[in-house]
Amino acid sequence: MGGANGQRCVDLSTVSDTAPLPKPPPVPGRRWFLPSAVTAELDPDQSGRKGRPKRTARDWLVDFACFLIAVTVGLIGADEMSGNTDIPYALQAVDQWLGALACAAVWLRRRWPVGLAVAMVPVCFISNTAGGAGLVALFTVAVHRPFKYAAWTGGASAALLPLFYWLRPDPEVPYVLIVALGWLLTATVVGWGTLARSKRQLMLSLRDRARRAETESALRAEQAQRLAREAIAREMHDVLAHRLTLLSVHAGALEFRPDAPQVEVARAAGVIRESAHEALQDLREIIGVLRASGDGPEESGRPQPTLGALEGLVSESREAGMKVTLDNHVTDAGTVPASVGRTAYRIAQEGLTNARKHAPGAEVTVTVTGAPGDGLTISVHNPPPPGDVPHVPGSGQGLIGLTERATLAGGHFEHGPGEDGGFRVSAWLPWG
């Protein structure tokens, strides 16, 4: 009988129906409730295993109950036959022996459900005592196999019922009524077994959907973490490239002008010390976020820069010896959304860093325009450098990162040579 309550529930939802899924974790203390035979036949996780599944304690109890049902019905049939003097004693003995063998065969119902049910059709036609075993076999094939097997075996049994009761009429029940009751019992057994199988299939389907949901959720979390770490990497590049460029510029000035006035040397050393301190602090914060959970750079302790910090960035570059002109037409930087202002700040920071490395001595112009509804436009332009430019290695990752930043913010980013032979980066970001 396989047990109608056998069920498992673990995990799955809307990943592709053919996508391979990880094995569900074992559920401690639940194996006793799992119908191993039916699970192996219906569950794709179990059906691919070699050999027959091990019969559980529940399986043994169910099989023993089926055996008792078969024996009880068989004893009732044998008792009815013993009271019928029209049946020869030899035929009664054969009937009872066939019934005993049929009841013993019930223990094989899990191994050969279809074969047992087919064999019970002629046996039940010959032996009245085997009726209980025939019903158990019919129920088993309905539970363990698709409906067509139960329909064929049940239909064959139902077709033989009129002939059976014609040859062995019941002395107390009319012929038509006993045949109708036999058909009703056969249909009930097949329907009950089919319902039990459908319930198990539903439970397995829900388990698979839950597993897919859990797998998809894990994939989404992994993707979100990966995107957050990529954002941290971009943040690290933007911040540290600016700080380290300041270090390089002032260290180069000290190297090539060892006879500089003491005041300039002290100022350059102070800028180097301050830039190194801020670079280390930024690095500690980013590494701390990476060690924590990868939730993004916004979770660090220091507030992120916005458009209002652009003045400080330009002042810092001027202190490093750059010629920078800020043309800011946004009078109230506080009205700019924080994410848009932060993206604009990083674009200006990367533009100044590149100009400092690749066009030393050139005057850089930072232009910011925009209004709510029109968007925010920021550009950084520098003319060709006045002298020879030392080779400075670069990977181009900064411009790629700025393109990603602008795209994620819903805008667009452009860069390339200017009309005067210099270089220009510009971006448009949505505002309002």
TrEMBL record:
Catalytic activity: ATP + protein L-histidine = ADP + protein N-phospho-L-histidine
A Pfam entry, by short name: HisKA_3
Region (Disordered): 1-29
Gene Ontology cellular component list: membrane
Record-listed E.C. numbers: 2.7.13.3
Residue stretches spanning the membrane: 60-78, 116-142, 149-167, 173-195
GO MF entries: ATP binding; phosphorelay sensor kinase activity; protein dimerization activity
Tree of life domain: Bacteria
Keywords: ATP-binding, Kinase, Membrane, Nucleotide-binding, Phosphoprotein, Transferase, Transmembrane, Transmembrane helix, Two-component regulatory system
Residues covered by the Signal transduction histidine kinase subgroup 3 dimerisation and phosphoacceptor domain: 229-293
Database matches in PANTHER family: NITRATE/NITRITE SENSOR PROTEIN NARX-RELATED, NITRATE_NITRITE SENSOR PROTEIN NARQ
Full protein name: histidine kinase
Record organism: Streptomyces liliifuscus
Organism taxonomic ancestry: Bacteria, Bacillati, Actinomycetota, Actinomycetes, Kitasatosporales
